[in-house]
Design a protein that fits this description.
The chain is α/β, with parallel strands linked by helices. The chain has three domains: 150 residues, Orthogonal Bundle (DNA polymerase, domain 1); 151 residues, Beta Polymerase, domain 2 (2-Layer Sandwich), CATH 3.30.460; 236 residues, TIM Barrel (Alpha-Beta Barrel), CATH 3.20.20.140. It has a seven-stranded parallel sheet. A five-stranded mixed sheet has the order 2-4-7-6-5, with helices on both faces. The chain is globular. The structure holds zinc ion (ZN) (2 copies). One zinc ion binds next to loops.
Length: 576
């Protein structure tokens, strides 16, 4: 048993006990044990056999036999016992925003809801509003929560999938095997259902001992390589601890171009492309390109596109047939690129809840090759967040001026991320905002109000002549909160006519505006900015997710995005 699996079982037990209403101290002891097993590097099997598990912090006399059983048998009779009292489906219920352990139990006792399917059925019949203590509003929250987690169940946000993929590819490269990410990762899908790699290798290459050892080490995976071979998918398929499988496909050098395309997908695009190739006398045969009975070697995708006489279609828009037609008619597809970005306009420092100083942020911006950077700390009513007020803003301004003198190669804009209040007004007065270079206005509180009021609040902020950018417009958090985009048609129009920029927030859990909304905003004539909302210098590297998942998938070119302009041009585009 892998240590992560043990931790997972312990957490299951903890949650079941919590749902049952057990003593919180007892509940917490399972989480503590899970954490210490997860973070430590113990030889669990030996320790279990020798009866030494209690040497691990957090494991006492009560937990020791239960964990020993898990390690030695892979099962837990205690967990089975518990699941007779509390159905395991309740573990899914508590993941729904709006349902805690107490509510899960209440729903089970009153309506016999024992999992997500039963929950969905009860929502359709409007049964939840009649449960004492819940009511209509709560029912709506749960319904929204369910639709949100259903989309992201069994998916991993790209912000986590991408770095893992990079590590794996680096690991293979060290062992002289070249590879790339394909599938949803290459298409910048915001949350992926698999991690797909294509390696330029043969099965035999991958079975070499040093490759296996390297892979096992980077996956922390103890299962054998051979057991992972799936003849149907012609791939090595591994379970990972991230909740999504890893699939490793292989290609010979002469197949690499076609297999890159085929494993990137989506299938509808592949079918269309094959049709186009057929009209040129080619066909596909098990990942090989064939013409007149001969295999035609293709080492890159670009080569394939030119053989088909089609302009290159970037993976991010292969799900959109209108781009296929465009490319086939010889029009190049021009999408914004990471290297087009000239500055980040939404970054936090230690003046609010960021961890870096103004100077560290500026240094990072220089490292990223930016021409400008806006320091936009919070002016907020959120109690847990350190906030700017008028005095602190003035003090921060001095620090910004100092940094400007020290780093003349970059323009440092003074800024703020100001709260939009319940009535659509802003937390700071206009005479203060008008002193700043870049004002981001965002909603951080009372998001769960009526849907229309969110759009109305954003619209009144967008009409304020001092507001340059509407920050993370819908307020969504992937897998946790759906956010609200009701009434956004009007917001997009107002933003377009007032010259207020709409943010594409690149933070991997936000990606807000999402692809469909960014597309709508652009067709309404609104201009966007892609910003990271970084709270650390490393966070400023998240720009790539806003560019890939939102802007490029929406089909936007650099023209639609204000922070691709150089400093002078940006200042001209911005409200005076
Ligand atoms: Zn914010
Ligand atoms: Zn922010």
């Amino acid at each position: 048993m892998h240590k992560y699996e043990i931790a997972h079982m312990l957490r299951k037990i903890g949650t079941l006990l919590e749902i049952k209403g057990e003593d919180p101290f007892k509940v917490r002891s399972y989480e503590r044990a899970a954490q210490s097993i997860e973070q430590g590097s113990f030889d669990l099997e030996t320790m279990a056999r020798e009866g030494r598990l209690r040497e691990i912090p957090g494991i006492g006399a009560n937990l020791e036999p239960k964990i020993r059983e898990m390690i030695l048998t892979g099962t837990s009779s205690y967990l089975e016992e518990l699941s007779e009292e509390v159905p395991l489906g309740l573990l899914d219920l508590v993941k729904v925003p709006g349902i805690g352990p107490k509510t899960a139990w209440l729903l089970y006792e009153t309506l016999n809801i024992d999992g997500l399917d039963a929950l969905e059925e009860a929502l359709q019949k409007n049964l939840i509003r009649h449960v004492p203590g819940l009511g209509r509003k709560r029912e709506e929250t749960i319904a929204r929560g369910l639709s949100e987690i259903k989309v992201f169940a069994d998916r991993l946000i790209l912000g986590l999938a991408m770095p893992v993929t990079q590590t794996l590819l680096d690991n293979f490269r060290e062992r002289t095997i070249r590879g790339i990410a394909v599938g949803e990762i290459r298409c910048y899908v915001e949350a992926v259902s698999t991690i797909d790699l294509l390696l330029m290798a043969s099965e035999e290459d991958l079975l070499k001992k040093e490759v296996l050892d390297g892979l096992r080490a980077s996956l922390k995976e103890e299962r054998t390589w051979l057991r992972a071979w799936d003849p149907k998918q012609r791939a090595f398929v591994f379970p990972t601890n991230l909740g999504v499988p890893l699939r490793i496909y292989m290609a010979q050098p002469e197949e690499f171009g076609l297999k890159t395309l085929l494993y990137t997908g989506p299938p509808e695009f592949n079918a269309w492309f094959e049709e186009m190739m057929r009209s040129k006398g080619y066909h596909f045969d098990e990942g090989k390109l064939v013409k007149d009975g001969q295999i035609v070697p293709v080492s890159s995708e670009a080569q394939l596109f030119s053989m088909a006489d089609i302009c290159f279609i970037p993976p991010e828009v292969r799900h959109r047939p209108e781009f296929w037609e465009k490319a086939a008619s010889g029009q190049p597809i021009d999408l914004v690129q990471l290297t087009d970005i000239k500055g980040d306009l939404h970054v936090h420092t230690n003046w609010s809840d960021g961890i870096a100083t103004v100077e560290q942020v500026v240094q990072k911006a220089l490292e990223l090759g930016y021409s400008y950077i806006a320091i936009s700390d919070h002016a907020t009513k959120i109690k847990v967040v350190k906030s700017l007020d008028v005095d602190k803003l003035e003090a921060q301004l001095e620090e910004i001026q100092e940094a400007s003198k020290k780093y003349p190669a970059i323009r440092i804009f003074s800024g703020v991320e100001v709260d939009i209040l319940k009535d659509g007004s802003l937390l700071l007065p206009d005479h203060v905002l008008s002193q700043l270079d870049v004002v981001v206005a965002s909603i951080h509180q009372d998001i769960e109000g009526s849907d229309y009021s969110v759009a109305d609040r954003l619209i009144s902020a967008a009409r304020n002549p001092n507001v340059d950018i509407i920050g993370h417009p819908t307020g969504r958090f992937l897998g946790r909160r759906a956010g609200s985009s009701k009434g956004f048609e009007k917001l997009f129009q107002v933003a377009a006519s007032e010259g207020t920029f709409l943010e594409i927030n690149a933070f991997p859990e936000r990606l807000d505006l999402s692809e469909p909304l960014a597309r709508e905003a652009a067709s309404a004539g609104a201009t966007m900015v892609v910003c990271t909302d970084a709270h650390s210098p490393e966070g400023m590297e998240d720009m790539v997710y806003g560019i890939g998942c939102c802007a490029r998938r929406a089909g936007l070119s650099a023209h639609a995005i204000a922070n691709t302009k150089d400093t002078e041009e940006f200042l001209k585009m911005k409200k005076p």
